[in-house]
Write a structure and sequence with these properties.
Length: 316
């Protein structure tokens, strides 16, 4: 009998309904020693303020990511030729009813990757998970590209400072992000108070509401955003609710009149060549999805991010 040898690279020619459901059909990492970019799941939604279900996001995004192929049709980038990429699994939790303890689990997991020079590309989970990731990757205040319907710079909610509407306020307070090199794109939706918008703008963050994005166009937004973040270390966080619910209904806090999926892809491709320390896709909630379309959007965003991260890593 032929000896079993685990696959060392994704088999892009296997039927897309076959095999283990890993991110992009990449092999499961047996260690971090031979990994350049680690794809990880963060199945946690204990910091939500509205509709639950994002804890199931990583599993369904893995399923839908089997539809991804190797070569990007727009950029002709094949990330698997540029870097060693693997699914490093899900962050293990031991106190899911304690937000701060869970955040520490996330930080500790990602810190192991960073210590081995592995770039993390994660799938959440609610948006609170960006804070503990930043604690692991930001050895100095980093630039931030934040694509979202909400600024996520509100303060406490129901007594918690670590809810999913507050990660970038906490990150600013902790000196993890440079507000002068932070751009928030696609912001929209009525609020009962202007606290989050006000905090971002007063801290010096560049807030681009959706009306500005639509009026100026993606190319102009990308050009200014690249000027804002500069050439230093940058982290990109993509909330799926930045996309209009016509394209991505399965999320906790949907807001109408958002980005189209085409605009979302163009944004990410516009941020090629930056000095990335990591990226995330968050807030995919399969229980509210329709036909897997939100999970597919999340998987496609993750693939586009993988392409820009692989380019960045290969040129270092």
């Amino acid at each position: 009998m032929t000896e079993y040898i685990p696959p060392s690279s994704p088999d892009m020619f296997a039927p897309r309904y076959s095999g283990l459901a890993t991110f992009m059909r990449t092999p499961v990492a047996s260690s971090l020693a031979d990994v350049d970019i680690g794809l990880l799941g963060i199945p946690y939604d204990g910091a939500l303020t509205n509709r639950p279900g994002a804890r199931h996001g990583p599993r369904e995004v893995r399923n839908q990511s089997s539809l991804m192929r190797a070569i990007n049709h727009a950029t002709r980038v094949n990330p698997y030729e540029l870097c060693r990429i693997a699914d490093v699994g899900d962050v293990p939790f031991d106190s899911v009813f304690d937000i701060e303890a869970t955040h520490k689990n996330i930080t500790d997991f990602v810190a192991q990757m960073v210590a081995r020079n592995v770039i993390p590309l994660s799938c959440g989970g609610d948006h609170s998970v960006s804070l503990p990731i930043l604690r692991a990757v930001a050895h100095e205040p980093v630039a931030l590209i934040h694509i979202d319907a909400h600024t996520d710079t509100w303060d406490s909610f129901q007594g918690s400072k670590f809810n999913h509407g507050a990660p970038f306020r906490r990150a600013h307070e902790e000196g993890l992000i440079d507000p002068k090199k932070t751009v928030q794109i696609g912001i929209r939706g009525a609020q009962n108070m202007s606290e989050g918008w006000d905090y971002s703008e007063q801290a010096g963050m560049r807030v681009m509401f959706i009306e500005e994005v639509q009026e100026r166009g993606i190319s102009a937004i990308v050009e200014e955003a690249r000027t804002v973040v500069g050439e230093g270390p940058v982290y990109l966080s993509f909330d799926i609710d930045s996309i209009d619910p016509a394209f991505a209904p399965g999320t906790g806090t949907p807001e109408v009149a958002g980005l189209t999926t085409a605009e979302a892809m163009a944004l990410i491709r516009g941020f090629r060549g930056l000095n990335y320390v990591g990226a995330d896709v968050v807030e995919v909630s399969p229980p509210f999805d329709v036909g897997g379309m939100t999970a597919l959007a999340g998987a496609t965003v993750m693939y586009e991010l993988l392409c820009v991260l692989a380019e960045a890593r290969s040129t270092r």
